[in-house]
Design a protein that fits this description.
The complex is a heterodimer of chains A (201) and B (503). Chain A has a single domain, classed as HORMA domain (Cell Cycle, Spindle Assembly Checkpoint Protein, Chain A, 2-Layer Sandwich), CATH 3.30.900. Chain A contains four helices and eight strands. In chain A, strand 3 and strand 4 form a beta hairpin. In chain A, the strands form two sheets. Chain A has a five-stranded antiparallel β-sheet. Chain A is an alpha+beta fold and 201 residues long. Chain B has a four-stranded antiparallel β-sheet with strand order 2-29-28-27, with no helix packed on it. A four-stranded antiparallel β-sheet of chain B has the order 3-4-5-6, with no helix packed on it. A four-stranded antiparallel β-sheet of chain B has the order 7-8-9-10, with no helix packed on it. Chain B starts with a helix and ends with a helix. Chain B is built from eight helices and 29 strands. Chain B has a domain of 122 residues: YVTN repeat-like/Quinoprotein amine dehydrogenase (Methylamine Dehydrogenase, Chain H, 7 Propeller), CATH 2.130.10. Chain B is α+β, with helices and mostly antiparallel strands and 503 residues long. In chain B, 34% of the residues are buried. Chain B is 17% helix and 33% strand. Classes of the chains: A alpha+beta (201), B alpha+beta (503). Chains A and B meet through helix 3, strand 3, helix 4, strand 5 and strand 6 of A and helix 5, strand 1 and helix 7 of B. Strand 6 of chain A pairs antiparallel with strand 1 of chain B, so a sheet runs across the interface.
């Protein structure tokens, strides 16, 4: 681990970091918004924080699939956005939408030397974003009914759709309020986070 | 002519692709009407023949137009039926669109294409030619049916049934006194009240500090900031009770003499407001919005003797332990740091412990008076938990969900209990028994979130100040007179033994 600290960032390393961040970020959102019961989450240490990840085996499997796929696509720089959509089970109405925009530096290639940015600096930035996600519970409206979540990924047009994935609409929220959270960058991938929620009428 | 009509009728009856006029509505049509804005009938119709074959006893009546009545009551599970219980993973509109657009002509004029593209970008938020959206199907089972999103329960809680236990002592549910605290700043991160050992309660109201003499009841205005925009962000009494340290929003730490009501020192070493202060005999520690903690030696001219950098956001909780060995600090970055009183090898102060378990800002920090190295911390709105730590081992001894923002924790010197102050929704003070962590009592009365707590020098009364601009004094740790005499006897006996052994 110590060796990685001083090596700088490669394309593959950056893809891994960002995919990992998404995995923990999605777990945090599922815990904080109460999509799954809090008893099914356990605490782990990551980024110098105590984070909550799910213990449900099916959900873990599902999220691992997504993370692996994201790693591949991030490495190829063909993914533009990851969206977590929270909608009510009863009515199917979209109540909350977490959007992670990814800006990929397409000039980065695997064979060129690692870029200058310490792991620690990136970890600090990721830590701030995760803390912000936790803190959003103070202003996001209550989710009254039982909710389910959906993952949408915006990719390049010509990408071959892999098995288990299907095309979908953007699932925007009608009449929404948007809040921009912090962003972090690995010098190869830059991730901006925004959360949109339904405005209380 | 008549025979053609007859023939037309016959043909009409024999043709199966037109709907039968005057027929009772099919079961699937009735269901669609019942469920209202559910999935479009396109998805439901394939089920029609199967449903039909299962309908028994409740056959629809022959009269047309009687559609709205609920003849069959099937339990509707989340917009589905018994064949497909949950349709949330299906996207009906999308599926319908994809099915029906197969045969659309691709001929379009260039301007129309431009227009379409503009519309697409507008509607979808991205260029359809450049990107497409994918969705992972096969989502795992949702949370079990009986699961109620308990955040709702959390925030709309009215009455906690916890305090129905029999208490062995009487704790009055009404405050002893209610004082006015007008213009108090409703800022979670400030520490605006402190009670001295000489029985003076110092209260910072915006840009002035008032002293209330508990014994006599008189009020003195100690100071007022010269600059109108500057406000007081923290107050702290020295142990002896003759000096008061005041932290301001202009990053100054002032030292005031109470006897003469004069300012003795104005120590400037911070660059942002000083939200919290704590004394350790002649060392005054101050925490600022930058996340830095400074140690000031108030006896010497060069007062700034040390800087502790352990927080990246505002330091809102700061407490020296009662034996002066450790300093506990809590910040808006959700961290709790425990600092030693002496520097480490390299001349730098490094925390002996860092606790990251809180998910919210940690303002409530308090050391246990009867057990060494035991620290209690409470988290803000995102966390709502009270945690007890052993700072030597770093273990979390216990954690309890208080269901509400924790602003302050105070340990009792008279009982094995501690009290915590809370915000939304009940704005109550909760007394907890230690170490069982059971609720002894809940004191309600404040109409807005509690900001700070402080205890009287005799340990019987707790003062709470809240955003409703009142200061309430609760006599919750009253000592039984018999028990008090026993305690005093025990104390005096101890001292005589010590004298004997020295002899």
């Amino acid at each position: 681990q110590l060796g990685r600290e001083h090596q700088g960032i490669t394309l593959r390393g950056s893809a891994e970091l960002v995919a990992e961040f998404f995995s923990y970020g999605i777990n945090s959102i599922l815990y904080q918004r109460g999509i799954y019961p809090p008893e099914t989450f356990t605490r782990v240490q990551k980024y110098g924080l105590t984070l909550l990840v799910t213990t449900d085996p099916e959900l873990t499997n599902y999220l691992n699939n997504v993370t692996e796929q994201m790693k591949e696509w991030l490495y190829k720089c063909i993914v533009q956005r990851l969206v977590v959509v929270i909608s009510s089970i009863e009515s199917g109405e979209v109540l909350e939408r977490w959007q992670f925009d990814i800006e990929c530096d397409k000039t980065a290639k695997d064979d060129e030397g690692p870029r200058e940015k310490s792991q620690k600096a990136i970890q600090d930035e990721i830590r701030s974003v995760i803390r912000q996600i936790t803190a959003t519970v103070t202003f996001l409206p209550l989710l009254e009914s039982a909710c389910a979540f959906d993952l949408l990924i915006y990719t390049d047009k010509d990408l071959a759709v892999p098995e288990k994935w299907e095309e979908s609409g953007p699932q925007f929220i009608a009449n929404s309020e948007e809040v921009r959270l912090r962003s972090f960058t690995t010098t190869i991938h830059k991730v901006n986070t925004t959360v949109a929620y339904k405005k209380d009428s | 002519m008549a025979q053609f009509l007859f023939e037309a009728d016959l043909h009409g009856l024999l043709k199966l692709d037109t709907p039968i006029p005057n027929a009772p509505p099919a079961r699937w049509q009735r269901k669609a009407k019942e469920s209202g804005p559910g999935p479009s009938p396109v998805g439901v119709s394939p089920m029609k023949p199967a449903n039909r074959s299962h309908s028994f006893s409740k056959t629809p009546s022959k009269t047309p137009g009687k559609s709205g009545s609920k003849i069959q009551s099937t339990p509707t599970k989340a917009g589905g039926d018994r064949y497909i219980p949950n349709r949330s993973t299906m996207q009906m509109e999308m599926a319908n669109f994809l099915l029906t657009k197969e045969n659309d002509p691709a001929e379009e004029s260039p301007t129309k294409k431009e227009q379409q593209k503009a519309w697409a970008v507008n509607l979808n938020g991205f260029d359809v030619e450049e990107a497409k959206i994918l969705r992972l199907s096969g989502k795992p089972q949702n949370a079990p049916e009986g699961y109620q999103n308990n955040l709702k329960v959390l925030y709309s809680q009215k009455m906690t049934p916890g305090s129905s236990r029999k208490n062995s002592r009487y704790i009055p549910s009404m405050p002893d006194r209610i004082l006015d605290a007008p213009e108090i700043r409703n800022d979670y991160y400030l520490n605006l009240i402190d009670w001295s050992s000489q029985n003076f309660l110092a209260v910072a109201l915006d840009n002035s500090v008032y002293l209330w003499n508990h014994a006599s009841g008189e009020i003195i205005q100690l100071l007022q900031m010269e600059h109108p925009d500057v406000y007081i962000s923290s107050v702290s009494w020295i142990k002896e009770g003759n000096y008061l340290a005041v932290g301001t929003s202009s990053a100054e730490v002032q030292l005031w003499d109470i006897q003469q009501q004069k300012r003795l020192r104005n120590m400037t070493s911070h660059c942002a407001r000083v939200g919290t202060l704590s004394w350790n005999s002649y060392i005054l520690s101050s925490g600022a919005r930058t996340g830095h903690i400074h140690h000031h030696d108030v006896r010497v001219a060069e007062h700034h003797v040390a800087t502790l950098t352990g927080h990246t956001q505002e330091v809102c909780g700061l407490k020296w332990s009662l034996d002066g060995r450790y300093l506990a600090s809590g910040g808006n970055d959700n961290l709790v740091n425990v600092w030693p009183c002496t520097q480490g090898g390299g001349g730098d102060f490094a925390p002996v412990q860092t606790f990251t378990q809180h998910q919210g800002a940690v303002k409530a920090v308090a050391w246990c008076p009867w057990q060494m190295n035991v620290l209690a911390t409470g988290g803000g709105t995102s966390d709502r938990h009270i945690r007890i730590w052993n700072v030597c081992s770093g273990a979390c001894l216990s954690a309890v969900d208080a269901h509400s923002q924790v602003c302050s924790i105070l340990w009792s010197t008279n009982y094995k209990e501690f009290i915590s102050g809370h915000g939304f929704a009940q704005n109550q003070l909760v007394l907890w028994k230690y170490p069982t962590m059971t609720k002894v009592a809940e004191l309600q009365g404040h109409t807005a979130r509690i900001l700070n707590l402080t205890m009287s020098p005799d340990g019987t009364t707790v003062a709470s100040v809240a955003a409703d601009e009142t200061l309430r004094l609760w006599r919750c740790f009253e000592m039984d007179p018999i028990k008090k005499k026993e305690k005093e006897k025990a104390n005096s006996a101890k001292s005589s033994i010590i004298h004997q052994s020295i002899r």
